[in-house]
Amino acid sequence: MLEVRGLCKRFGALAATQSVDLALAPGARHALIGPNGAGKTTLVNLLTGHLAPDSGSMTLDGADLLPLRPHQRVRAGLVRTFQINSLFMEYTPLQSVALAIAQREGDAMRMWGFAAAGRKHVEEAGALLHDVGLGNYLHERTDLLPYGLQRLLEVALALACKPKVLLLDEPAAGVSTDASQRLFDLIDRLPGDLAILLIEHDMRLVFRFAQRISVLVAGAVLTEGTPAEIAADPKVREVYLGSRHAA
Q1: Antiparallel, parallel or unpaired: β 212-217 and 2-11
Q2: Model pTM?
Q3: Which residues, 6+ apart, have CB-to-CB distance to 154 below 8 Å?
Q4: Is the CB of residue 65 less than 8 Å from the CB of residue 75?
Q5: What phi, psi does 7 have (nearest 5°)?
Q6: CA-based nearest residue to 121, from 133, 103, 137, 135
Q7: How many beta carbons lie within 10 A of that of residue 176, not counting itself?
Q8: DSSP code at position 163
Q9: Per residue in 215-231, pLDDT tens?
């Protein structure tokens, strides 16, 4: 579903990504871990078109991603959440998600201001928000929601785009334990054919979520394997995990 080969990006003398290879099958639950500065978010920005690679290839469901701008990649089915929330704070969750659905369907220009929104978009938005646990907050302003609920809303906005591949960039960052539990309960319920790439520092969540894990160090993939293989790998324990996940 998503295939990356030989992806490289330099910022002057700094090699942010070095010949990165990555492949996600339909329904993959794949985690990307590594120390701060390893290049994880740079890789996500390359995948989503916010940065241009110096070399390498990227395909989504067999189609070349490189010529596509960020919004075109979203329409093709590659959707992300952000490390720092990027939301319409003055809108309600229902308004925001209905607008995302309208954009997906090519109706966003008619809908701006929400008054002209089609009933079907509003109904779909309400159903999606109920599914992610925000059914009691449809009409609350987003800036009044607790931060954990804002993170759920960002996932709802991503799902409104009907992605083939969902990139979650540290979705649990800055949220309470209860909120992160709710978030990962939602992730557990996502459609089985949706491929997910998770970037996350909380190893408890990573090892709960992932079927496979790639370890990025200094912009290069150190190793890839199952959670058990990664936990037992002495190289990974040395550079990242430490003794907490020793076999």
Answers
A1: unpaired
A2: 0.88
A3: 81, 82, 85, 86, 87, 171
A4: no
A5: -75, 125
A6: 103
A7: 12
A8: -
A9: 999 999 999 999 999 99
